């Protein structure tokens, strides 16, 4: 790309064209990768092996702090806003925990 054709407009055009071609190839590779990933996930789900990401707040969460927060949210019988402020999590997270627990 260091070679100069002589005409500044033509030089700029060539550089932009090369960049656009590289961007297009990169985008196509990304789309193909996503397609293959989706195929793999579908195949594994059909076998019953793929379960998705584990819940962040649950009885068997890896982080003990998040397990404690989960138990506090489940035990509290207050408004969602109050629970969220007290345990320092969002209302959306409180709703998700309660929905998973069917409270």
Automatic annotation (TrEMBL):
GO terms for molecular function: DNA binding; DNA strand exchange activity. PROSITE patterns: RECOMBINASES_3 (PS51736). It comes from Staphylococcus epidermidis. It comes from the Bacteria. This is Recombinase family protein. InterPro entries: Resolv_N (IPR006119), Resolvase-like_N_sf (IPR036162). Gene3D superfamilies: Homeodomain-like (1.10.10.60), Resolvase, N-terminal catalytic domain (3.40.50.1390). Transmembrane segments: none annotated. The lineage of its organism: Bacteria, Bacillati, Bacillota, Bacilli, Bacillales. Keywords: Plasmid.
